[in-house]
Amino acid sequence: MGTSLPRNFRASVETVAIGASAGGIDALFTLLRGLRQPFRGSVVVVLHLPEDHESRLVEVFAARLAIDVREAQPGAPVASGKLYFAPPGYHLLVEADRTFALSCDPPVRFSRPSIDVLFESCADAYGPELAGMVLTGANEDGARGLAAIKARGGLTAVQDPAEAAHAAMPLAAIAAADPDFVLPLAGLGHLLQTVVR
To answer: Domains in the chain, start-ordered, CATH in brackets?
Structure first.
């Protein structure tokens, strides 16, 4: 499958929401390493992490990427040209005014932060100005959220399960959302650069 945008995809993408779980750190490095400043979009990531461990994702990714990397803070606007990670132990949401919010609600699909929670809130906030991507993982988190993004006119993409370190999450997303693209990480990286520039 190529990486040309679907014919019915007319709106520009303001934000790309990405979800990953088991095997996700390596996948994210591969996906994001081609991003360079300036880029006009924002990228928001949920990566499943143990709740009782301090996250070093910002530090680790900032040292290896050529973009501004931050942990999402409640009340802060989702600003262009930045990569945000969800903090551990909280659900991350984007409100209608496109600011971040955190929630201590119970885990969803055994996960907090939940990819579904982020994706569904982003779908409501951005509609067709959103792209969602589901990467490697060993559960079904993200499938329902990706379907919500597609239902609201957003662009949807999933890592090729044959390439993923853990195929369960991509397979669930494909079954639930019938995504616009199913691509290896190299293809997803090209797509990401296309939609945020």
So the answer is: 15-196 (3.40.50.180)
